[in-house]
């Protein structure tokens, strides 16, 4: 029995500047309402606090950005939590929401450690990133990948991404990759905390 293909994303956190162009491209391409974000940019800050003359003073301040969307997990908790089986994985490993089956209880949102499923106020249904299935069908890149001005995003077959970029799947504040086996590889920023 042959293994099914698993597509995923790559992020080079070393060059991501948090410009949010990927978010805008995703929202524009998918005509998303204001409250729905299929892709987000997380700004992670940390520091060491020291006491000087009775005041707390930060030192060793670190900041980096992570552009994240649905991780199209190998073990998607959103799919397990959905009471109507509206969430499924296709032959390329992409996690989809069947709008016709969605019963709007938002269990998938609460189960997902990446906050990927979004509730649409206009549709009253859950929706999420499908890795631009329509663009991939005509051999084009997902909108977020092409929009990134610093080329921090890439996509492809997970086996190929691992060969090219390694196998780091999480840094703070992302959850441990062993929880869901995300289909995302990243190159950590130099300040990233594993």
Protein model, in words:
The protein has a single domain (7-187), classed as Alpha-Beta Plaits (2-Layer Sandwich), CATH 3.30.70.20. Helix content is 21%, strand content 28%. The protein contains seven helices and nine strands; from the N terminus they run βαββαββαββααβααβ. The strands form four sheets. It has a three-stranded mixed sheet with strand order 8-1-9. It has a two-stranded antiparallel sheet with strand order 2-3. A hairpin with a 5-residue loop joins strand 4 (87-89) and strand 5 (95-97). The radius of gyration is 18 Å and the shape is globular. It starts with 6 loop residues before the first strand and ends in a 7-residue tail after the last strand.
Brief summary:
This protein has helices at 21-30, 77-81, 107-111, 133-136, 143-147, 158-165, 177-180; strands at residues 7-12, 39-52, 55-69, 87-89, 95-97, 118-119, 126-127, 153-157, 184-187.
Structural class: alpha+beta
Rg from C-alpha positions?
A: 18 Å
Question: What kind of oligomer do you see?
Answer: single chain
Question: What is the mean predicted local confidence, pLDDT?
Answer: 93
Report how far apart the termini are: 36 Å
Domains, number: 1
So how many helices?
7
Helix content: 10-25%
**CATH class annotation:** Alpha Beta
Strand adjacency order, main sheet: 8-1-9
Q: Mind describing the biggest β-sheet? A: 3 strands, mixed
- How many beta-strand segments? 9
CATH architecture: 2-Layer Sandwich
The gross shape turns out to be globular
Indicate the proportion of strand residues: 25-35%
């Amino acid at each position: 029995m042959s293994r099914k293909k698993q597509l995923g994303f790559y992020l080079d956190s070393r060059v991501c500047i948090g410009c949010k162009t990927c978010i805008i491209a995703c929202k524009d391409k998918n005509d998303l309402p204001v409250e729905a974000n299929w892709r987000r940019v997380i700004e992670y800050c940390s520091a060491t606090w020291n006491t000087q003359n009775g005041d707390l003073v930060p030192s060793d301040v670190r900041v980096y950005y992570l552009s994240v969307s649905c991780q199209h997990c190998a073990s998607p908790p959103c799919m397990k939590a959905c009471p109507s089986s509206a969430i499924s994985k296709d032959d390329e490993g992409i996690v989809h929401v069947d709008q016709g089956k969605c019963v709007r209880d938002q269990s998938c949102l609460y189960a997902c450690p990446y906050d990927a499923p979004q509730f649409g106020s206009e549709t009253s249904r859950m929706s999420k990133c499908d890795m631009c299935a329509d663009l991939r069908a005509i051999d084009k890149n997902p909108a977020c990948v092409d929009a990134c001005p610093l080329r921090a995003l890439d996509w492809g077959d997970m086996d190929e991404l691992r060969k090219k970029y390694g196998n780091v799947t999480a840094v703070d504040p992302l959850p441990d990759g062993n929880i869901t086996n995300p289909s995302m590889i990243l190159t950590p920023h130099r300040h990233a905390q594993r």
